[in-house]
Amino acid sequence: MKKTLLSIVTMAILTTSVSANANVMTSLQSGINNAQTQGIQSMNQSDQNVYFKPALTKEIMVELEVPQIVKFSKSNGDELNLIKLSLDSAMNSYKATENIRVESNGDSKVRIGLGKPFDLVSNNGSKIPSTPVVTIGNTMLNGAANVGLGGGTAMFPLTNSVLDTTLNIIVKGNGLKSTEVYTGTLNLVIETAA
After folding, report:
1. Cβ count within 10 A of residue 134
2. I want to staple 180 with a disulfide (CB 3.0 to 4.6 A). Which of 38, 65, 81, 122 is the partner?
3. Are 83 and 99 in contact (CB under 8 A)?
4. Cα separation of 73 and 84, whole Å?
5. In whole angstroms, how large is the CA radius of gyration of the chain?
6. How are the residues of the chain apportioned to helix, strand and coil, as percentages rounded to the nearest 5?
7. For 70-193, which CATH superfamily applies?
8. Which 3-state string (H, E, C) describes 144-170?
9. Per-residue DSSP letters for 87-153?
10. How far apart are CA 103 and CA 114, in angstroms?
11. Average per-residue pLDDT in the chain?
């Protein structure tokens, strides 16, 4: 008898529990359905109070570096690779003048100097007795000295980022031997200056 009573009580508890659980599940499902229906309706309406927040804001630095561009050429745009000095018998010297152009990308001035000492040497190794004089426009360039640091350079203003001027080389003719050929490399350093 006790077993039967215990079985009846257990069945009653299980039945009540299953029934209550079913009611809770039905209520939950009904609530979910209502929320979905209302959410869809709300999304279909033009609700201006709905805001979306980004999950992440990332700031990235962007840098642009304009390269220093300097061009050196003859005034007609051709490259200047060779200068031949001609005799000026009235001055007892050898000289040459070239029309040159220096262009820069947006700078207002350039510095020009000798990168190395400029000498002319004969094919047998002897130097000319006098130092060649190099001028840009009317400005004489002195011997090379710390060109990258501004020493031994001359400053030239640019007009619309361009300098049109002359390159002049003069060598005194005293002590030069006839039929000798003298050669050397003129090393110009050109830098932009703010």
Report:
1. 20
2. 122
3. no
4. 16
5. 45
6. 25, 30, 45
7. CFA/I fimbrial subunit E, pilin domain (2.60.40.2040)
8. CCCHHHCCCEEEEECECCEEEEEEEEE
9. EETTTTEEEEEEEEEEEESS-SEEEEEESS----EETTSPBPSSPPEEEETTEEE-----GGGTTTE
10. 18
11. 78
Domain edges within the chain: 70-193
DSSP H or E run through 59? none
Cα–Cα distance, 155 to 184 (Å, whole number):
25
Task: Characterize 161-190 residue by residue with b for buried, 16 or more Cβ atoms within 10 angstroms of its Cβ, and e for exposed.
Answer: bebebebbbbbbbeebeeeeebebebebbb
The region of weakest confidence among 9-23, 87-101, 124-138, 152-166 is: 9-23
Tokens of 168: 């002049």
Tokens of 141: 């360039």
Which has more pLDDT, 111 or 16? 111
pTM to 2 decimal places: 0.63
